[in-house]
Amino acid sequence: MGAFLTESSLLLCPHFGRVKTTAPAVRAQAVQGTLLHAADATLVEGCVLQTSNGPHPCVTVVWSEPTTRCVVGGQPVLTESSTGRCFAADGTPQGTVIVSSQQKARGQ
83: exposed, middle or buried (C-beta count within 10 Å: 0-12, 13-18, 19+)? Predict the structure, then answer.
């Protein structure tokens, strides 16, 4: 299943634009922040993709494969195993979201 994705997760488009949730469908808190759901509205900021016709940035993400075991407010939550597909404003698929995982520090 993987770790839950939250508003504090580092999510990037393939061109290193930042993926952000603009309107959580359901608000549920985890230690790291609000859990993300497949139905959440997301946008991409700072995508630098250039084509021969000029800029063609990723602007939105459509999520698939949310967890089926954890549902909050009737909405399945996203995990590191979920897939986010990035799209340009004209609907062109641009690739998948990069989920930057950070290892937790351990002390003795």
Answer: middle
- Proportion of the chain above pLDDT 70, given as a percent: 82
Asked whether the predicted pLDDT for residue 66 surpasses 90, the reply is no
pLDDT of 103? 45
Residues whose CB falls within 8 Å of the CB of residue 45, separated by 6 or more in sequence, listed in order: 17, 18, 20
Do 60 and 45 touch, CB atoms closer than 8 A?
no
Query: CA–CA separation, 80 vs 84, rounded Å?
Result: 10
The confidence band for 37, taking pLDDT boundaries of 50, 70 and 90, is confident
Could you tell me which of 82, 57, 55, 52 has the C-alpha nearest to residue 67? 82
Reading the block at residue 25, the tokens are 């469908």
* Contact between residue 68 and residue 53 where contact means Cβ atoms under 8 Å apart: no
